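Input record (Table S2, row 345):
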Amino acid sequence: MKRKGKIKYKSDLTMKNIGSYPEVRLRRNRKSEWSRRLVQENSLSTNDLIWPIFICDGKNKTESIKTMPNVYRYSIDSLDRIVEKALKNKIPMIALFPNTPEIKKNAKGTEALNKNNLICKALKQIKKNYKRKDIGIMCDVALDPYTSHGHDGIIIDNYVNNDQTLKVLVKQALLQAKMGCDVIAPSDMMDGRIGLIRKALDKNGFKNVQILSYAVKYASNFYGPFRDAVGSKKSLKGDKKSYQMDFNNSEEALRETLLDIKEGADFVMVKPGMPYLDIIKLVKTNFKIPVFAYQVSGEYSLIMNGIKNKILKEASIIESLVAFKRAGASAIVTYFADRVAKILK
Ligand code: PBG
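Output record (PBG complex):
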């Protein structure tokens, strides 16, 4: 059957305005550097970076991590040097992660509540030495760096128990706030933790301590090198699929985010990063809240190994991070933060 008239496009007007070759040549705008700069839609700046730092026990130590080339664990005395570097490079925030000595780990992760654990000591020192400096410190709320089984919560009857874990997480968050933590970042994926932590913070005089919820965190295969760095890899039994999200799902990300926003999250994280750009975009278009992305350890190691083996150029780092900006992320947690700051200069 023949159609009468022209095909109707939904946006007829724009289709007409676009025109066609040879009058239209999209390459014209790309001809020179100045023109490309004029039409640039997204860009990466040091303001977008969050720099994760691993802390280890001992004095004057810089430990390399086998699965993460160029990333190190630092003892607390070296932290001032790191903070100076971040300040100099205008990196707005550092995220602290501990490598807890094995002897301090147990099934309940009680070391998380020790006011002299690595994170607390680090917070105290940074907050004392850089009191009036413009830099944020963020800390994970989760038990995996402290438990002998490597899970993020307390195990009862072979299951990470949600409500018992919540009690500990609230205490962990309060302790971190007391030690001067600026941004509390629950990465544990227990239900209801944002609301309980917000209430506890408010009740104890920490109304202005921010919460960055790892709202959308997938049970991912890309976390391996991180677990190596914090020392939970060997001990981890099984997987985290009973609390972290199934990577086959995306609608569920909206429910997770909605709940955390309702419970008082100031910003939300999507994690991992590059394989989940669709999720960043989905969350960003559905909610008017700052969305952060985590370029996780496995992503880092892949790119880093590519650069080390001369398969990739250093510029691929920037390209990988701009992808997050395009997808709608306000900031990116990346192990490349200090290197990127140098490149951007
Ligand atoms: C712990 C935590 C993990 C990461 C950040 N916080 C690992 C996990 O959930 O097993 C991963 C970060 C990375 O891979 O870079 N709750």
